[in-house]
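[Help] Beginner question about ligand-bound structures

Sorry if this is basic. My supervisor gave me a protein sequence and a SMILES string for guanosine-5'-triphosphate and asked me to "get the holo structure". I don't really know what that means in practice or what format the answer should be in. Inputs are pasted below exactly as I got them.
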Amino acid sequence: MARFLIVEDSSVILKVLKHVARQTLEEEPWYAMNMAQAVELYQAHRHQLVAALVDLALPDAPHGELVDYLLQQGLPVVVLTGTSDGDVRDQLLKKGVADYVIKESRFSYQYAVQMLQRLEKNRSVEVLIAEDSSTYRHYVRQLLELHQYRVHEAENGAQALEILQQQPAIRLVITDYHMPQLDGFELVQAIRHRFEKRNIAIIGLSGQEDSAISVKFIKNGANDFLSKPFEQEEFVCRVTNNIEALDSLEQLQWQASRDYLTGLYNRRYFSEEGETLLQRAVREQQPLSLAVLDIDFFKNINDEYGHQAGDMVLQQLAQLLEETLGRFLVARTGGEEFSVLLPGLDNDKALSLLNGLRQNVEERIFDIPDDFVRISISAGVAASVALPQPSLSALFARADEHLYRAKEAGRNLVMGDDEDDE
Ligand SMILES: Nc1nc2c(ncn2[C@@H]2O[C@H](COP(=O)(O)OP(=O)(O)OP(=O)(O)O)[C@@H](O)[C@H]2O)c(=O)[nH]1
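Answer (accepted):
No worries, everyone starts somewhere. Holo just means with the ligand present. The predicted complex, written as structure tokens, is below.
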């Protein structure tokens, strides 16, 4: 179901907007060429609509009547306009439009459509304002809510820290400098003590009278700063830039830790996280096991049905692993090799769990293009207690030995440290 409404009377510009929307948005928006069509679409789909991109002057609404109508209904509106008149801009911002875009080039249409997407994403982004002046706090809240952010408020730094503790989803903190109890710098330092820049962004607010404050904010760990009083648009741009920088970092982190084909963790992440989990288990004298599993005769699937079929089998096995063992650390650690780190499980429990998985795989049908295949897996399990000096590489070496034995013994088997292998 479409979530955006785009209204433009020029068929040439509408064509450009459609092209940009198809490249940017996941779903096709609703399109209208005049106010009558737009109102009809709004009334029919108002519960799904998230935001609208509206041309200011339409044949049946020459003075922005559609913008007024949609704002009255509470729908966030991005305005498209051919005029760069400062008064028009001020009037529109005063009315409460989320943004306005001057029709200048292909890039401005791109910006406008991306803004629709941003407004939708912002509905799940939480922002905290730390500011002792209730007037300013209220003003900043209004600006953020105009852009659909979910807003928390704190009257001072100490309260801001409390809220951050209770609301782990907060991604951006906007903080004033002068505040009772804990000032802006102390708050930034306290936040950086607990959260890295890639997890929470901070924008400092400072009065114009002291430009050194801005620099100090950045040097103390803030990502950005704004001098008060600020332009609404500059504020919104800074907030958007910081949130988008966090999004990009998150995406990079995801890509660096994941296997592209299956979406499971990759070997690198598994090794880092696995070592930490192992050392914790040793410290707390808790059992921990590692299972390394491998598809039997996987080469035959590639040879018989092609590489794409092989990839599909790997993806489906990864999904099964995620569904059944997702509470543990699961990774694709090689071509057709997967590893599972099992904190809390000794050799017997790990063997029994892996044997259950082995049976599950054996009974399952794996879809490939126009056909299906059956597969089996073999696995080697190593427990940390069996090692004099537990390390992840020592665990891997031992699990690999057991996997090799399972292959030698005929495959579709799980073997471990215990002599009564299953
Ligand atoms: N489709 C696909 N195949 C892969 C991928 N990575 C590795 N392989 C294939 O996995 C196969 C592994 O073959 P082998 O090491 O001989 O092992 P096997 O055929 O599974 O036999 P055993 O492990 O001894 O039971 C090779 O044909 C690789 O090309 C991948 O990402 N996609």
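A couple of things worth pointing out: The radius of gyration is 28 Å. Residues 305 and 385 are 42 Å apart (CA to CA). Feel free to follow up in the thread.
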